[in-house]
Design goal:
Layout: H1 6-12, E1 21-22, H2 23-33, E2 41-48, E3 61-65, E4 76-79, H3 85-90, E5 95-97, H4 99-106, E6 114-117, H5 122-125, H6 129-132, H7 150-158, E7 161-165, E8 171-178, H8 183-198, E9 210-217, E10 223-227
Parallel strand pairs: 1-10, 4-5, 4-6
Antiparallel strand pairs: 2-8, 2-9, 3-7, 9-10
């Protein structure tokens, strides 16, 4: 039998199975149970309705700009033309380059967590999709990472823009902040996130788009949101 730690046993005592509790109550519980020394991430997981009435499954991929930020630190790289390098440097990006950055990428030197690319450079970066794609780094116009407005793109990433994408079973997940955030800020981020996902509901989907919602922390247990 697997031995459970004292911390796990204490947290598990707060598990709730039958009672319907609100997102606000859950956030307070999750923050209380976030007893690790590091600043745990507070995460939300959703099950969405994938089945469309006209056949086929829905693939949802978009971005949500959390009003209070995500608390996650991103290392941003900008790939642009030579005459835009100065703007890119002033935007706050940690890595900036043109053909020299492409050479680094082709050699496998990936020292960033987000990549912004100008439209003019997309033709050159296409062949590196096999390297960038599996790591979720391939720039995408729908995600705001292919743009001529470099400053805006970098600012959005730095201040709370999160990407969401469902898996084949209709699950999607995202951070909504850190345990150091106040409950009010976490709830604000949560409400904004849920409403943003609901707005993505296609007309061909019948009934509720968001089926189930759960909130947890990095090292905590999960709670199902049962009421507003």
């Amino acid at each position: 039998m697997k031995k459970r730690s004292k911390r796990y046993k204490e947290i598990f005592k707060t598990a709730i199975k039958d009672k319907k509790i609100t997102a606000k109550e859950i956030i307070d519980l999750v923050k209380k149970n976030s007893t690790c020394k590091f600043d745990e991430s507070i995460d939300v997981s959703l099950r969405i309705n994938l089945k469309q009435s006209k056949g086929g499954d829905l693939n949802l991929r978009t971005t949500v700009n959390l009003p209070n930020g995500s608390g996650k630190k991103s290392i941003v790289a900008v790939l642009c033309e030579s005459d835009k390098l100065e703007e890119a440097k002033k935007s706050g990006a940690e890595v900036v380059g043109s053909d020299d950055l492409l050479e680094k990428i082709s050699s496998g030197k990936i020292d960033f967590t987000k990549l912004v690319c100008t439209p003019a450079m997309m033709g050159k970066i296409g062949k590196h999709g096999k390297v960038l794609g599996p790591q979720g780094l391939m720039p995408n116009p729908k995600l705001g990472t292919v743009t001529n407005d470099i400053t805006k793109a970098v600012k959005n990433i730095k201040t709370g823009l999160v990407e969401i994408r469902n898996d084949k079973d209709g699950n999607l997940a995202s951070t909504i902040g850190r345990k150091s955030f106040s409950s009010e800020k976490l709830l604000d981020n949560y409400n904004h996130f849920i409403e943003s996902v609901k707005k993505e509901k296609p007309e061909t989907i019948k009934g509720e788009f968001v089926k189930n919602v759960y909130i947890t922390s990095t090292m905590g247990i999960s709670y199902k949101v049962g009421a507003k």
